[in-house]
Amino acid sequence: MNAAPADQRRLLEIADADARTRQAEALRRTPPQAARVQELLAARQTQSHELALRSGALDDLRAELARVESDVRVVDARRSRDAELLRTVSNPKDAAGLEHELASLTKRKSDLEDAELALMERLEAAESAVAEQEALIAETNAEGARLSAEAKAVVAETTALLEQLARDRAAVAGSVPAALLAMYERLAARGSGAALLRARTCGGCHMVLSGTDLQAIRAIPVDEVATCPECGCILVRTEESGL
Ligand SMILES: [Zn+2]
């Protein structure tokens, strides 16, 4: 195919825009923060599950403490009642019975108070465990929010870049003859559409061309399209080509 050297060189700009577009599309699909955001989402699920367990344990302890406190109130009421009765009772047998009950209520109250203290200690530990887990989740959320915002910014920047690249490419493509552009598009669909031949090396496949291949390329007039014998892309020849 015939093509002016200047038009062939424009294909390099188009190929460059296409390569940058592919990179930008990949970046927009998967911003660098995406993997860590996924990790954080999974971590938060595990952390929330652990928080639910710790909160459940804390609730159980609170319920247990409430039961013990209620038992203490029952014992206190009973003790007041017995003490009141003891003041009025005249039968020694009844008095002995009440005294015996009062003694056992005192023992019961002391046991309940011991249990209460032990529970309060466990409650304090459980509250710390919950607070610790909440802090961990807050940290995870904060990192996730920061990275999501960063990823959004990357997507926005990349979207703007893609629009710019599309405009630039269209401007260059508009000045390239349709047949040459069509040839480029056809080749670009399966690899490098066009590449610079630099120092005897194809910029598309990075192969150093053999002497025979270079001989054949030298024989092709500059206003005719040459292709790489290795990868088939349009080889754009310049003074850097080493021909
Ligand atoms: Zn090649």
UniProtKB/TrEMBL annotation:
UniProt domain C4-type zinc ribbon: residue ranges: 201-235
Pfam family, one: CT398_CC
InterPro entries with a match to the protein in the record: CT398_CC_hairpin, Oxidative_Scav/Glycosyltrans, Zf-RING_7
CT398-like coiled coil hairpin domain segment(s): 15-190
Domain of life, per lineage: Bacteria
Gene3D superfamilies: 1.10.287.1490
Coiled coil feature spans: 58-143
Keyword field: Coiled coil
Keyword Cytoplasm among record annotations: no
Name used for this protein in its record: C4-type zinc ribbon domain-containing protein
